[in-house]
Amino acid sequence: MTTWSISEAADKCGLSQHTLRWYERIGLLGPVTRDANGRRRFSDADLDWLTLITKLRDTGMPVSDMQRYAELVRSGGGEAERLELLRRHREEVRRALAAERECLKLLNSKIDTYSRRVREARQEGQKCAPPS
20 near 29, Cβ under 8 Å? Predict the structure, then answer.
């Protein structure tokens, strides 16, 4: 079985070594296997798990919810609670996406306005009016 050092795992996951140690310390990552010298050796399963929790964090899941999810997964049970936790978070992500879409609409509107003004000013050979 191939394993990776903490620096290799950090590179593969796009996380810092400090973050990997912290994730292990707070229980987001289960105990990592150590070599004869006591150095962490990350497995494929560890990297897969890190990918999942990184995605959960990227979606704004609170660390406390991630910790609870990790506890439930490690226990091998609690599937109903895991399901509810993920469904609840999915609703938060949907709300955040809707808010982001509204922001994007505003940006698009402003870009359209300024693009039109610049185009019109060029056609008229004038300077653009100050943006509002």
Answer: yes
